[in-house]
Amino acid sequence: LGVAWVALHARTAAQMYEGKADWSAITRLVEHLKPSGVPVLGNGDIWSGRDALNMVAETGCAGVVVGRGCLGRPWLFADLVSALQGVNKELTPALHQVREVMFRHAHLIVEYLESEDRGMRDMRKHMAWYLKGFSVPREIRHDLGMVSSLVEMRGLLDKLEDQPYPVEVGDKPRGRTSHGRPPTLPDGWLNDPDELVHVELEDAFSGG
Predict the structure, then answer these.
(1) With 50 as the cut, is the pLDDT of residue 94 above it?
(2) Quick check: helix, strand or coil at residue 9?
(3) Which of 120, 136, 137, 190 is 20 to 30 Å apart from 22, CA to CA?
(4) Residue 136 sits in a domain of what CATH number?
(5) What local confidence, expressed as pLDDT, does residue 195 receive?
(6) How far apart, in whole angstroms, are the C-alpha atoms of residue 61 and residue 40?
């Protein structure tokens, strides 16, 4: 078929971020592609290693794709590897460990964007995800959400008192939440689903 694998997100465009992902759609795709030998990766509502195991067992997919589940929890990938290798181990870092991951994350963004200003602006949205469930003074939360430099961020993080990982919210849904909405397509898009769109060679390779 010319593809190495296919990934399917089991939440519809109409759902947006609400409701539960319909894993049965992944099951149907697995069955449909089984004769071709193309593996299917499942996506949707993977918040923990247990979720990954449940999806694989329920749908027969070959692996999982993670979206919002890793926001503020990059160690989720280690949990997934452990779970899929049959190791019952989930990381529960204390706040002092989380704050070092946060600072490393900020460094990497600044390095990648080659701009401390742009990097810190981007990092602001990650603060609440990392601190979800932790008891952090309102003033520090606010200031981290407005942070403008690595030095400032370091100073704020150093004010945080250590505390255990909030396991009661650690593997719960996170990231964006929004109500569903009807999907829209360009006018006439579905008039003839079998129509082959003609593309000029110049257009296909044009950078414009």
Answers:
(1) yes
(2) strand
(3) 190
(4) 1.10.1200
(5) 63
(6) 5
The domain tally of the chain equals 2
**List of E strands, 49-142:** 63-65
SS3 state at 136: coil
pLDDT tens digits for range 44-75: 999 999 999 999 999 999 999 998 889 999 99
pLDDT tens per residue, range 147-157: 999 999 999 99
Stretch (H or E) spanning 169? helix 167-170
Q: How far apart are CA 136 and CA 99, in angstroms?
A: 12
Residue 174 lies in a domain: no
Q: Please indicate, yes or no, whether residues 17 and 79 belong to a single structural domain of this protein.
A: yes
- The whole domain housing 150 covers 95-161
Residue 11 located in a structural domain: yes
Q: Are 89 and 75 in contact (CB under 8 A)?
A: no
Q: Do the domain assignments include residue 187?
A: no
As beta bridge partners, residue 65 has 43
Contact call for residues 170 and 92 (beta carbons, < 8 A): yes
Where a domain ends, among 51, 84, 117? Answer: 84
Tell whether pTM > 0.85.
no
